[in-house]
Every structure is written in structure tokens, then in C-alpha cells.
Amino acid sequence: MKARVFVTLKNGVLDPQGKAIGHALNNLGFDAVGNVRQGKLIDIELTEQDEAKAHASLKAMCEKLLANTVIEKYEIELRP
Amino acid sequence: MKSAVIVFPASNCDRDAQTALAEITGTPPHMVWHAETEVPDVDLIVIPGGFSYGDYLRCGAMAAQSHIMRDVMKKAEAGVAVLGICNGFQILTESHLLPGALLRNADLKFVSRPVELVVDESQSAFTRKYSKGERVRFPVAHGEGNYFADEETLNRLEGEDRVVFRYAPGDNPNGSARNIAGILNEKRNVLGMMPHPERACDPLLGSTTGRPLFQSLIDTLS
């Protein structure tokens, strides 16, 4: 089973990189660009076949290492 | 006073800490490699600055999961003094030995220069040789030193006199909340700070205002 984990800063946590990307896009002429937030995408291959177990295990990985839950939130996507 | 310095791959202030400790305490510290599982019996553990594990994932995230940190956490809980400097501070927040997190500097720039700090709390094992309100000058060298915590945590840190160092007004190099440069844990035996006191212990380095921090520890722990 494959999983994709998205780690992004929580709302309200300053994201200077996102801001810089937004400014750069504006400078390139993309006038429609408003607020920009950036984050990480982590692809993980798992030997686990059971969806519920895989999800529980990924949640533990996020809490323990992949995200710092003081400042970040995460989303887990499972793909067969 | 017996001390130890933890060395991770890409630590780069471990030898600065070693030199300062050897010179000021008169006893060279144990240098403990990250793959070891136990820190020797010491009074002070220093987690030095650097870019442990290449700052992969997040600064300090990998180091916080290393073998040696399990024993550091155990010893911190048992009351051993722990000083985390720069990357060491990041490792201590990632280990949850200290609250909050260090974010990317607000202006996105790596900052490497001396900064002016105010000692905001002298009632601690780390700062008893300073007086409250005293100005000191330590170098900073980091890209991710922007201290962040929620309002409740910040209020609690201030209410419990756990903010030990603040950037002097107008000299906040990274956007840290409430100018916070260094904080204590609840039991007051763990200090994390972004500026480098170990690099302010010799006149050749431009400042000796870091020495009282180590002398405070000698006084308290010897």
C-alpha cells in the first residue's frame, strides 16, 4: 500500500517562505495570487495491506516524527 | 563540576563548548557520540549548536529521536542540568523537554552576528551570577531561531519566570515571540537558548559575558 502525507503549518503560524513565494509570483505578473502557504509532501510505501491498520500506523508516524504538532498539521492519503 | 557534550553528525559548536567547559570548569567534558546509549554520570549535559543530521525534515527532529537523547531525557527528568544552545535548543523543543518551537527567521535570512541580550531571570542554576536586567552580548548564528508558542504557553512561561534571556528591545534578530531568546523547563534544570554563551567566554572572541553562565553552574552544581 502507498501513502501520501501532507505536512503544513497550522493556521496562524507565520509562514515567511509562503509569503516570499507569493511575492515572487506577484512579481512574475500572476496578479491573481493572494495568500500562499507552503508545506511538505512525503510519499511512503507500506507493506501493511489493512487500510485501518495502515492509517493508524501513519498517524503514529506523524505524531512521533513527520510533523511537529506544536506548529504543524498533517493529512494522510492512502492509495492501494 | 563534571560535564558532557553530546556530538551529533554535523554538530559544529561541540568543540567551542568543549573548550569553554574545559577552561572554565578546569575539567574537560566527556564528548558523547549520538549513537551511544548512555551519558556518563555528570552534573551538566550540553547539547551544542550545529546542523545535526543536516537539518533534515526539521531542525533537531532527527536528533530528538537518536539513541543518546533517550538517556538525556531520562537524566533531565531525574534533575541533571541540561543546556541546549542553538541547534541544541531546537533539539530540546523537538524532544518536548521544552515547550514551543523554533520557526524559520521572520525575514528568511540566516543571521550571524553578536546580539545584545537582557538577563530576565537570575534565579536559576544557569544565571545566578548575573543580575536581573543585566545586558550581555552573545553571538547568534541561525536560520531558524524564531521562537513560537501559543499565547497560553507564552503567558505561562512569563508568569513562572521561565524566560531567562530576551533580545534587547530593537535587537530581535529573528522575529521571536516577545523577544524570547532562552527559556527554562518547569523544573528549571533545562535551559534552551539560541545565542551562544560558549562563544562569549574569551576576550579574543569579543565578549566574556558568557562566562558567568558557566560559573553559575559550577557554583550550583559542584
What does this structure look like?
The complex is a heterodimer of chains A (80) and B (222). The model of chain A has no long low-confidence stretch (mean pLDDT 96). In chain A, 35% of the residues lie in helices and 29% in strands. The longest helix of chain A is centred in the last third of the chain and has 16 residues, at 51-66. Chain A contains two helices and three strands. The N and C termini of chain A lie close together (5 Å). Chain A has 80 residues and is α+β, with helices and mostly antiparallel strands. Helices cover 25% and strands 25% of the residues of chain B. Chain B contains six helices and eleven strands. Chain B has helices at residues 14-25, 61-64, 67-77, 87-94, 151-159, 211-221; strands spanning 3-7, 30-33, 44-47, 81-85, 101-103, 111-119, 135-142, 146-148, 163-167, 180-184, 190-193. In chain B, the strands form two sheets. Chain B has a nine-stranded mixed beta sheet, sandwiched between helices. Chain B has a two-stranded antiparallel ribbon with strand order 5-8. In chain B, helix 1 (14-25) crosses helix 6. The A-B interface holds A 13-14, 16-17, 20, 64-66, 68, 70-71 and B 57-58, 61, 65, 93-94, 99-101, 103-108, 146, 148-149, 175.
Summarize the model shown.
Chain A is α+β, with helices and mostly antiparallel strands and 80 residues long. Chain A has helices at 16-27, 51-66; strands spanning 2-9, 39-45, 72-79.
Report the structural category of chain B: alpha/beta
Give the CATH architecture of chain A: 2-Layer Sandwich
Please tally the helical runs of chain B, counting DSSP H or I stretches of 4 or more residues: 6
Estimate the mean pLDDT confidence of chain A.
96
CATH superfamily of chain B: Class I glutamine amidotransferase (GATase) domain
Shape by Cα distribution of chain A:
elongated
* Helix-strand pattern of chain A: EHEHE
The dominant shape of chain B is globular
Compressed to H and E, one letter per element, the order of chain B equals EHEEHHEHEEEEHEEEH
The CATH superfamily title of chain A = Phosphoribosylformylglycinamidine synthase subunit PurS
Count of structural domains of chain B? 1
Low-confidence spans of chain B: pLDDT under 50, at least 5 residues? none
Do you know the CATH architecture of chain B? Answer: 3-Layer(aba) Sandwich
Strand order of the largest sheet of chain B: 2-1-3-4-11-10-9-6-7
Q: What is the quaternary state of this protein? A: heterodimer
Q: What percent of residues of chain B adopt helix (DSSP H or I)?
A: 10-25%
CATH topology category name of chain B: Rossmann fold
CATH first level of chain B: Alpha Beta
The whole-angstrom Rg of chain B is 15 Å
| SS strand fraction of chain A | 25-35%
